[in-house]
Amino acid sequence: xxxxxxxxxxxxxxxxxxxxxxxxxxxxxxxxxxxxxxxxxxxxxxxxxxxxxxxxxxxxxxxxxxxxxxxxxxxxxxxxxxxxxxxxxxxxxxxxxxxxxxxxxxxxxxxxxxxxxxxxxxxxxxxxxxxxxxxxxxxxxxxxxxxxxxxxxxxxxxxxxxxxxxxxxxxxxxxxxxxxxxxxxxxxxxxxxxxxxxxxxxxxxxxxxxxxxxxxxxxxxxxxxxxxxxxxxxxxxxxxxxxxxxxxxxxxxxxxxxxxxxxxxxxxxxxxxxxxxxxxxxxxxxxxxxxxxxxxxxxxxxxxxxxxxxxxxxxxxxxxxxxxxxxxxxxxxxxxxxxxxxxxxxxxxxxxxxxxxxxxxxxxxxxxxxxxxxxxxxxxxxxxxxxxxxxxxxxxxxxxxxxxxxxxxxxxxxxx
Length: 416
Known about the structure:
By secondary structure, the chain is α+β, with helices and mostly antiparallel strands. The chain has helices at 14-43, 62-67, 72-75, 86-102, 149-207, 214-251, 264-274, 276-279, 299-320, 377-388; strands at residues 47-52, 57-60, 106-115, 120-132, 138-147, 260-262, 283-289, 295-297, 328-337, 340-347, 392-398, 402-410. The strands form three sheets. The protein has a five-stranded antiparallel sheet, sandwiched between helices. Strands 7-9-10-12-11 form a five-stranded mixed sheet. A two-stranded antiparallel ribbon has the order 6-8.
């Protein structure tokens, strides 16, 4: 070998040089793509992470790490037990292992997770799906999450505002519901008072031995006939007032923080009494309440949903019967179906126009004039039924025939 050749640079053949340059460019392109992908994932305002079959972190974006007071590289190989309180970590671990075992994803589940930076629990809307290798074998999970704490708080505020608005709107009607029996109760008590005084006078006259004139006998006969009816009207009036007061109490129950077993049929009856002033001038009420088990729910929130549906039904009927004097029909039905109860509210209004059917659950969307609706009723109904209770709410409608809203509530909602 020529000694000089040892110090000379190796000369690659043209094909080898091209191949080397192609590999170098490919490596640069891959590195650039990884950087772009990492930057995009870190900029997405969502928690994104991956875990292996033992629920150890294999990847995460910056937002996940930042929430837990660290950086992505420090999370690799660790588990939720390294970052969350033990009870919370146990729950996450059990859910993920069940997902890996079943292959069934978790979609849009609300869960509470600790935020180390804020030092508080936050509400996260989480989805987790199984991760498979090229052979279809489950190797872990990929998860995403969105912090909805502020949105949940706003939903609660809007719900409270809608509740206050609805109760304020009903106040005049409730006053009428109570004033009417009070009026005829007062009239009946006045009649009884006068009748008793007259009878006492007649008794005094009879005690003196004087013979009672025929007109006095007629008056006594009249009082004998009418006084029992007056007493019955008093009892009826007191009963009606008691019913209204009891219904108001049931309707306005303060159970926002805790779920409890609720008699849905009784809740509906109470809401019908409270809402009577909204529908009695325009519609008859027909009920078909089936036998139901107690439902674990927020009774006050379900009452508000029923109130909104009844008011909407009454307004829909009033809109198509303006000036006609005809009354429509609102039908409320309940039934048990599997592990859920179904509530439906039907009206004989004009139906929902096709062009707005996909918008009726949108926040602040309303076709009513100012002062007649805030556009929050159906939005909050959907939030209460779907997000809070894990149920469903849907509707069927036909132009000129009316609309039916159907609510399906789980008897015992899953831990949400």
